[in-house]
C-alpha cells in the first residue's frame, strides 16, 4: 500500500495569509492602481470591483489593486466599467486587462 505525503507545505497565520494574498494582487498590478496606473505607495487598497454592498465577494476574481483616490471615487457604484469610462485616465487596454484579471 502506497503512503501519501505532502512536501514543501507552508502554514501561515491568518494575518500572514491575508498579507500574502494582498501582496499577490499588488504585485500582479506592478504596485500601481489598476484604474489610473498611479503608484500605490503606502496608500494601496484593494477594490471590490463588484462592491460588497452589492453582493460582491472578497475573492481574487473580484479584487484589483487600487489607489485610495480611485477607490473613494468609485465607491459602491455597481457598474465599474461605467465609472471607469467616465475617468480621464480610461484607456481600452486598461479595461481589457481588468476584465482578463477578473475572468481568471
**Average pLDDT number:** 91
Give the neighbour order of strands across the main sheet: 1-2
Shape: globular
Tell how many strands the DSSP assignment holds.
2
Radius of gyration: 16 Å
Fraction of residues in helices?
Answer: 25-40%
Q: Ranges with pLDDT <50 over ≥5 residues?
A: none
The biggest sheet, with number of strands, parallel, antiparallel or mixed sense and barrel status, is: 2 strands, antiparallel
- Helix-strand pattern: HEEHHH
**What portion of residues belong to β-strands?**
5-15%
| Count of separate DSSP helical elements | 4
Class by SSE composition = mainly alpha
N- and C-termini, Cα separation: 38 Å
Explain the overall architecture:
The chain has 104 residues and is mainly alpha-helical. Helices cover 38% and strands 8% of the residues. The chain is built from four helices and two strands. It has helices spanning 14-28, 68-74, 80-85, 92-103, and strands at residues 45-48, 63-66. Strands 1-2 form a two-stranded antiparallel sheet.
Brief characterization of the structure:
With 104 residues, the protein is mainly alpha-helical.
Amino acid at each position: 500500500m502506497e503512503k501519501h505525503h505532502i512536501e514543501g507545505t507552508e502554514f501561515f497565520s491568518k494575518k500572514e495569509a491575508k498579507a500574502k494574498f494582498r501582496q499577490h494582487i499588488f504585485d500582479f498590478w506592478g504596485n500601481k492602481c489598476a484604474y489610473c496606473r498611479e503608484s500605490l505607495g503606502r496608500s494601496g487598497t484593494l477594490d471590490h470591483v463588484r462592491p460588497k454592498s452589492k453582493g460582491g465577494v472578497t475573492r481574487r476574481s473580484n479584487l484589483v489593486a487600487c489607489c485610495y483616490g480611485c477607490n473613494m471615487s468609485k465607491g459602491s457604484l455597481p457598474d465599474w466599467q461605467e465609472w471607469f469610462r467616465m475617468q480621464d485616465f480610461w484607456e481600452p487596454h486598461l479595461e481589457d486587462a481588468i476584465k482578463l484579471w477578473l475572468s481568471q
